[in-house]
Amino acid sequence: MLDGTIENLVKLQAIDTKIASVARELDKIPEMLKGHKLAMDVAAAELANNTKSLELERASILQLETALVEYNKDVEEANKKKVAVPIERLEEVDAEIREKRMAIVSVEEKLRFSRGQVERLEEYMTSHAKEATDTKEAYEKEKAQREVDNKGLFDEIEMLKAERDNFVVALKSKNKKYERLVAKYDKTLNSRNNLAVSKVVDGFCTGCYLKLPPELATDIKRGKELIECPYCQRFLHDETVAV
Ligand SMILES: [Zn+2]
Questions:
Q1: How far is the centre of ligand 1, averaged over its atoms, from the C-alpha of 241 (Å)?
Q2: Do 235 and 6 touch, CB atoms closer than 8 A?
Q3: 229: CA distance to ligand 1 center in Å?
Q4: 194 φ/ψ sector (left φ>0, alpha ψ -120 to 50, else beta)
Q5: What is the residue extent of each domain of the chain?
Q6: pLDDT tens digit string along 10-34?
Q7: Three-class secondary structure of residue 168 per DSSP
Q8: CA of 234 to the centre of ligand 1 (A)
Q9: What is the Å distance from ligand 1's center to 28 Cα?
Q10: How far apart are CA 28 and CA 35, in angstroms?
Q11: C-alpha 10 to ligand 1 mean position (Å)
C-alpha cells in the first residue's frame, strides 16, 4: 500500500519548486547593475590606458633630455676645438657644429611635443580618475541596495530549506523506505531539471511529454504502488493527488 507516499513526494516537490523559483529570482542581475558595472569597467580601462601612455611619454622625455645634454656638450667641445684646429680643418668642424645644432633643434621640437602630450594626458587623467571613482561608487551603491532588496528572498529561501529539511527528517523517521525514496527523488531532481515528480494527464507524462503505456496509466489510477515514468524516471501521479 502507498499510504500517502506519492502525496508526500508531491509535497516535497512543491517545496523544491518554490526553492528553485526563489533561487532564480536571486540569480537575476538587474540591468541597472550591469550598466553600472560596464561603466565602471570602461572607466577603469581608460584610466589604465592613460596611465600607460603617460608613463611612455615621460620615459621618452627623459631620453630626449639626455640626448639634448649630449648634443649641447658636443657643440661646446667642437667650439673649443675650433681654436686649436688647423685652418684647413675648420670647415669640417663647422659642419659638425651645424649638424649638432640641427639635431638640437629637432630634439627640442620633439620635447615640446612630448611635454604637450604629458600635459594633455595629465588633464585627461584627472577627469578620468574622477569618472572611475564616480562609476565605482555608483556600482557599489547599487550592489549594496540590491543586497538590501534581496534580504527578503534570502530569508525566504532559508525558510524553505529548513521546511524541506524538517519534512525529510519527519518522513524518514516515519518509515525507513523514505531513505531510499528520497535518495532516488534527489537524484532525479538533480538530473531532471528540478522535477522529480510529474502528473499524468490524458495518458501522458507531463515531465517528458511522452505517452505512457496504457496499463501503466491504469496502475497509476489504482494507486497501489509507486510508479516511475519509464522514459524520464520521474515518480508519477494522477489528478486525484492534490498538488
Ligand atoms: Zn516522463
A1: 17
A2: yes
A3: 5
A4: left
A5: 11-174, 196-243
A6: 999 999 999 999 999 888 888 888 8
A7: helix
A8: 6
A9: 29
A10: 14
A11: 15
11-174 architecture in CATH? Orthogonal Bundle (1.10)
From ligand 1's centre to the CA of 220, what distance in Å?
13
Amino acid present at 200? V
How far does the centroid of ligand 1 lie from the alpha carbon of residue 200, in Å?
Answer: 9
Q: What is the pLDDT of residue 243?
A: 64
Per-residue pLDDT tens over the stretch 51-109? 999 999 999 999 999 999 999 999 999 999 888 888 888 999 999 999 999 999 999 99
Q: What is the DSSP letter of 240?
A: T
Q: Cell 504502488 sits at which residue?
A: 225
Q: Do 203 and 217 meet the contact criterion of CB atoms below 8 Å apart?
A: yes
> How many A from CA of 187 to the centre of ligand 1?
15
Instruction: Give me ligand 1 centre to Cα 18, in Å.
Output: 21
